[in-house]
Specification:
Strand content: 5-15%
Helix content: 40-55%
Number of domains: 1
Strand order of the largest sheet: 2-3-4-5
CATH superfamily: Aldolase class I
CATH architecture: Alpha-Beta Barrel
Largest sheet: 4 strands, parallel
Bound molecules: iron/sulfur cluster
Order of helices and strands: HHHEEHEHEHHEHHEHEHHHHEHHE
Length: 370
């Protein structure tokens, strides 16, 4: 059911309530996601006030690098332009030496985190993931390996006749530092059927994240917005994350992932004609800050929305710019423009100073390093 539009008094009451500690309801969040016009800035301003209360003026980033071992993927999701079939002419799978070379490059760039982002290769077992983690730890001493979504964990478990908890324990023993809360997309099964039908269900995703907590690891949380979901489904997704965070405190942050539509099956099949808009980007950051009262860190995804929009997101409730990345083939293949691979900390500094905030380098778990 579509949420009714808010009048001025209702909007003011919802925003004032968040500043006095009342929890926003899912219906209220959906109504905020439907706002247009100058009301958006009222939400953004309130979210910025809330951000100041929760984390102060520091904007954080992590020196990290993405590593793409392969784009061959069993899922080939509707919202992804990166995944390929084994037989596609542009499918790739790095040799061990090539992968080590990328890892050595990451070491030279003095990263503290490596973000393993790749297709879910149909031939992978737990051994492939263990080997990947061990190689990274070997080539980049002291690095934090951030990787393996719940979907990859479920697949590795299935392929290796393990439970997902046993799989997580093996990944932890191999040296994984934290788990990616990706593959969440929108945690509504009817939406998942359209955008990522071969991925695990909502219940399975939640079960595995609970196990991440049980084995003593942390995870990020994500939302992929701007494809076919409604504002109500976006709000429901945030509500699921908030409940799980109440229960476990497993999430370090929310990473909002704006949908980029170019070259995706959804675009090719005519199910979408556009990705997320600037209005949606600002509202997603602002409403998340106000709704997720148990999530300290709201990231603004510069590689998805560009550096200037990121600065606006940081003025709308965001407090983190994510990582330097150095390479991001996932966004590039979906139409992200030039300059979306590497965010130079000097440029981050410039944008932070411009809004009178301070930049700090952090590690993956949000400990401040400098
Ligand atoms: S989003 Fe991930 S799982 Fe889906 S096709 Fe792309 S690489 Fe594969």
């Amino acid at each position: 059911m579509t949420t009714p539009r808010l009048n001025y008094a209702e909007l003011r009451r919802i925003l004032d309530d968040t500043l006095t500690g009342s929890r926003m309801s899912e219906t209220e969040a959906a109504a905020l996601f439907r706002l247009t016009g100058r009301d958006i800035w009222k939400v953004a301003t309130t979210a910025d006030e809330r951000r100041e209360e929760v984390v102060g003026d520091i904007i954080t980033y992590v020196r990290n690098m993405n590593l793409h071992l392969t784009n061959i993927c069993k899922n080939r999701c509707g919202m992804c332009a990166f995944g390929r079939k084994t037989t596609d002419p542009d499918a790739f799978y790095l040799t061990e030496e090539e992968f080590r070379e990328h890892a050595r490059d990451a070491a030279k760039k003095k990263v503290t985190e490596v973000c393993y982002l790749a297709g879910v290769h149909p031939g992978f077992t737990i051994e492939n993931y263990e080997k990947m983690i061990l190689t990274l730890c070997e080539e980049i001493p002291g690095v934090h390996v951030h990787g393996c979504s719940p979907d990859e964990i479920a697949f590795a478990a299935h392929q290796s006749n393990l439970t997902t908890k046993e799989t997580l324990i093996r990944l932890k023993e191999a040296g994984i530092g934290s788990v990616q809360g990706t593959a969440a997309e929108i945690l509504v099964d009817s939406v998942r059927k359209v955008i990522c039908e071969r991925k695990i269900s909502t219940d399975e995703w939640l079960r595995i994240i609970r196990e991440v907590h049980d084995v003593g690891l942390k995870a990020t949380s994500t939302i992929m917005y701007g494809s076919v979901e409604t504002p109500e489904e976006r709000a429901h997704h945030l509500s699921i994350l908030r409940d799980l965070q109440d229960e476990t405190q497993v999430f370090t942050e929310l990473v909002p992932l704006a949908f980029l539509h170019h070259n995706t099956p959804l675009e090719k099949n005519g199910k979408v004609t556009y990705g997320s808009t600037g209005r949606e980007d600002i509202l997603l950051t602002a409403v998340s800050r106000l709704f997720l009262d148990n999530m300290k860190n709201i990231q603004v995804p510069w590689s998805k929305i560009g550096q200037k929009m990121t600065q606006l997101g940081l003025m709308s409730g965001g407090n983190d710019v994510g990582g330097t990345m150095f390479v991001d083939s996932l966004s590039r293949t979906a139409g992200a423009g030039e300059g979306t691979d590497f965010f130079d900390p000097k440029d981050m500094q410039y944008l932070c100073t411009d809004i009178e905030r301070k930049l700090a380098r952090r590690d993956t778990l949000y400990n401040i390093l400098e």
